[in-house]
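User: Sequence recovery, please. Input:
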């Protein structure tokens, strides 16, 4: 009798597992439909608010995004039916809201055709989603990335060095982070480098975790690592400082080092690594502000923005001031799509897209967007914690933390919580390199979640 009950229970559990992937994809379908409708509604309200009429072009912009997003959905149904159902709709909604805001700024500046940033953003969205589909199809087993740990590490470093190759660097750029192919195609290799380095960090920490968690000196209730275990941290810290000093890119250097420290903490569980990382960041900032004029200038803008004796309101202080004025103008509920003046702020479609959105959809709208990011990151961390292999756990956590840190750096920068750096807001801001990299992160997380849900659970006893 007991055997029959056990057998029946096993059959029921097996049936539940068989139905779960389909349930996940159905849930994703309805969430994705909701995301597409909201994006289309935002585009429509932009036209009604800014032009007073609906241009048929709205069908091409909104319809193009919907077709591309549902293409990813149907690919997931075919090859990764157990993948997380929330990541794709959230990324689609954020991308759609970004396109709507960029399109609104194009209207204000009378930009049309290929000169319009929204047109380019939609083209980059197509490339990004095509890349995500390719990654989902080809990356059948994410664990294969572990074999190429050091190749990805080398690739990440080479990508960071590309702007120094003669003929590739854009000479007029403020920071050495852009490369140009034939003067027609420009991108930031550092966006792809962060993915390569995340894979390298995950593989490296899996291989060396035992030595990193070895017993050290206990002081103030915390076990501190030995000096020989500090080597990898110091190397990554030096690379990050090199990016800040040589490439004049404060954001990427901070992002890479923060990602490594976060993954190191997940791998070892030692609070001491976090404290050491924070101490190294403080030391790096102290050195950079003394020897680098552009870093010092950003700190001055941050601390004394409204002091005309230290910050010229018509030069260095113009952009951050206009961004803050735009947020204040939006208030709690915002001016409404197409009713504000976000184009007054320089780079309102890229670096300051958060203030542009805040002006027209208000503080409540910004909180909703931040909640979307919070859910996205929490699902990514959940994917990592649910995995049974250390590599997938570290990679999912590292990629999710990268998105979270990038959002914090950009939102904190434009609202003067921290000094402003040169990163982009994930999915929202105009820029092809960032959009491609972020959608590749979505694809990798989807593949990891599918592998985690599909792998058999270990039976104890």
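Assistant: Recovered sequence (461 residues):
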């Amino acid at each position: 009798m007991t055997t029959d009950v056990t057998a029946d229970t096993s059959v029921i559990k097996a049936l539940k597992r068989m139905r779960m992937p389909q349930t996940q994809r159905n849930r994703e379908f309805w969430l994705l439909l909701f995301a597409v409708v909201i994006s289309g509604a935002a585009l429509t309200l932009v036209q009604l608010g800014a032009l007073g009429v609906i241009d048929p072009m709205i069908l091409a912009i909104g319809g193009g995004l919907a077709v591309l997003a549902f293409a990813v959905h149907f690919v997931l149904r075919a090859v990764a039916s157990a993948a997380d159902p929330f990541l794709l709709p959230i990324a689609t909604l954020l991308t759609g809201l970004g396109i709507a805001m960029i399109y609104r700024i194009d209207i204000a500046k009378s930009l049309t055709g290929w000169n319009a940033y929204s047109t380019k953003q939609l083209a980059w969205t197509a490339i990004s989603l095509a890349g995500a589909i390719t990654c989902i199809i080809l990356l059948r087993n994410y664990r294969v990335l572990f074999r190429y740990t050091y190749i990805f590490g080398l690739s990440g470093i080479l990508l960071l060095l590309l702007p120094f190759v003669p003929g590739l660097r854009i000479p007029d750029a403020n920071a050495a982070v852009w490369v140009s192919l034939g003067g027609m195609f420009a991108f930031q290799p550092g966006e792809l480098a962060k993915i390569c380095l995340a894979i390298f960090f995950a593989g490296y920490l899996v291989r060396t975790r035992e030595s990193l968690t070895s017993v050290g000196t206990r002081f103030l209730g915390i076990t501190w690592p030995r000096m020989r275990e500090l080597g990898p941290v110091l190397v990554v810290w030096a690379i990050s400082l090199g990016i800040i000093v040589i490439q004049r890119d404060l954001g990427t250097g901070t992002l890479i080092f923060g990602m490594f420290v976060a993954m190191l903490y997940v791998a070892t569980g030692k609070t001491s690594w976090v404290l050491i990382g924070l101490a190294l960041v403080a030391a790096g900032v102290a050195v950079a502000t003394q020897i680098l004029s552009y870093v010092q200038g950003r700190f001055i803008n941050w601390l004394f923005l409204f002091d005309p004796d230290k910050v010229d309101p018509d030069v260095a202080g113009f952009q951050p001031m206009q961004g803050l004025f735009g947020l204040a103008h939006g208030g709690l509920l915002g001016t409404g799509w197409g009713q504000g003046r976000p184009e007054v702020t320089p780079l309102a479609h890229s670096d300051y897209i958060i203030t542009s959105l805040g002006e027209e959809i208000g503080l409540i709208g910004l909180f909703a967007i931040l909640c979307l990011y919070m859910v996205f990151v929490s699902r990514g961390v959940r994917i990592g914690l649910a995995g049974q292999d250390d590599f997938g756990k570290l990679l999912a956590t590292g990629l999710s933390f990268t998105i979270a840190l990038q959002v914090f750096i950009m939102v904190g920068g434009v609202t003067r919580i921290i000094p402003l750096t040169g990163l982009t807001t994930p999915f929202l801001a105009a820029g092809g390199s960032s959009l491609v990299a972020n959608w590749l992160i979505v694809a990798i997380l989807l593949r990891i979640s599918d592998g985690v849900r599909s792998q058999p659970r270990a039976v104890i006893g």
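The CA atoms of residues 17 and 454 lie 9 Å apart.
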